[in-house]
Each structure stands twice: as C-alpha cells, then as structure tokens.
Amino acid sequence: MAYSHLNMHSAFIGNAYIYIQPYANTCWGVGVFRVHEQVLRLRSEEWSTLFMCAIFYTSPNSVVSKIKRGMEQFRDITSVTDEDRRNAVKDEKGFAYTADGKKLIGYQGCETKLFINEGIEVIADEVFARMDIETVKIPNSVTHVGSNVFQDCPNLRSVTLSDNIVHLGEGAFFGCENLRKLDSNGTHNYLEADSFALPSGIKQISDYTFYNCNSLDNPFLPNKLLRIGNAAFKFSRIVKLTVPSSVIEIGNESFCGCNWLTELSIPVSILSMGSNVLKDCPNLERIIITKGSRPHMQEVLPEYENLFVERES
Length: 313
Prior knowledge:
Low-confidence stretches: 1-59, 187-193
Helix content: under 10%
Number of helices: 4
Oligomer: single chain
Mean pLDDT: 80
Distance between the termini: 23 Å
Radius of gyration: 21 Å
Strand order of the largest sheet: 1-2-3-4-6-5
Largest sheet: 6 strands, mixed
Structural class: mainly beta
Order of helices and strands: EEEEEEHHHEEEEEEEEEEEEEEEEEEEHE
Number of strands: 26
Shape: elongated
C-alpha cells in the first residue's frame, strides 16, 4: 500500500489521511477519510522506528464529542455550592475560600493588583467578574480556573497564569478589552509586552474565552491543545496565528470579526471545522496548510481555498 510522508505526526496512505500521536515505539491513529479497521505498518526514511498504528473507522463527530464530554467533567470542580458559601473562610485581604482552603470562591477586597495565595488549587466561576482589577498573579498550585472568572474587567491589563492549569473555563476573559499580556509562571519569559501564552497543559480553549479581547495579540498556543471553542477569539486583535498540530476541532465563529488577522496556519489534524470560523476577517491574506494536505483542507474549509498556501511541515 502506497503512502506519502508528511511529518512525524501524519501520513497519507492511499487516499486516507492518518493522524499519528507517537508514544515510544507505538502510536494510535485516527482515520479522517474512510479507513477500515486494520493494522498498518509504516516505514519512512525519516523514521528510525517501525510504527504500529491501529486505525479505527470512526466519524470525526464521534471523536470530537468524546473530547467534549471529557472536558465537561471540569465544570463541577469550578462551580460554587450553597455549602461552599455557608462554610466559607475569609482572610484579611478580602478573599473567600472553601473550608479546606483549596478553592477560591470570592473576593471583596479593594486592591487592584492581586496575588493569589500559594496552595489554592481552584479559582471558582465568576470570582473576579466585573471588578476594577488591573493585574493578577496566579500561583503554580492552581490547576482549574472557572468560567467567566475575569469577565468584563475593563481595566485588567496583565495576568500571570499557573503553568499547571489544565482547565480554563468558558468566557474566562470575555470582554477584557484592555488585556495586553497573558503569561505562564516562568515558562514564557521571552514573550514581548503585548503578547500571550497559555499554560502547556491546556487541552481546550473553551467557548468565548477571549471574546472581544481586542488588545491581546501574538498568541502562543500549547502543543497539546485539542480544541478551539466557539467564538474563542471572536473580535480579538490576532494578527498571525499558528494552530498546533494537535488540534482536531475549531468551533463556530472561532476567529469571526478578527479585523487584524492576516495569516492563519491550520494543521491537517483538523477533524471538525465549525461555521463562520473566518467570517468578517477582511485582511486575511493567506491560510498556511501542510504540503500535500489540500484535498483534506478543501473538505474542512472549502470557501477559503483561494487563500491556501502549501508549505513543508
């Protein structure tokens, strides 16, 4: 069976695109086109190891829905119950915590520059929503940040995130028009002032996360990212963006209304592309795709074929 090599994570076998996530000497693949369940042996001059790939006949929607269900487990972690409120413990800075001291559930202080205490593991939904805060530093003990946690904070300029965060809830920075810097603790110090990087463990950019963050540009996305949610960057100030090769879904209107966007690099790993992803992006000049992946990209983004530019991976 003939195949053409694309990169260390993908290959075409006949007319089937196989996406590969290698682990040691084995890997599991997902067939994007029609592939019967089978085991294939792939060898390439660039590969020093013989890979075994189990290819499952499955629909893209099935793969994406499984990932979404896995992400939903985090919602209960960041929500606040009536019991949490009854047993809340407050400190002298105005922070309120659950009885075990591990979840931050409220803030009633007057400081605009906030330092979250080390030892906090969860920042609950809407803790700082609609507040007059300017900068926030989140310690490395934090692993979960809730939905709408900084929604509509008009003066928020800079947030330092824990690099151990695995979940950032829906609308976390919704409407933060003056947010200019988003960084991870000690991981991306090379970034310039007006730029942002997400923690390396983030698997999903949830729906509406950076909606109308029109001062935030130059994004650096983690290479373990699986999904970019609905309207995740809608009305943001992105100029150029490279979507990591791990991403399999881009949701509805993800980049809609990004007036500054000129270049978008999209990997061939994409299984599902929502509607109106690039609507109202008047300055978009090119969409960078992997050489040899044009047939697949025509399937997921047919209306922008004239902007495709093929490059070696």
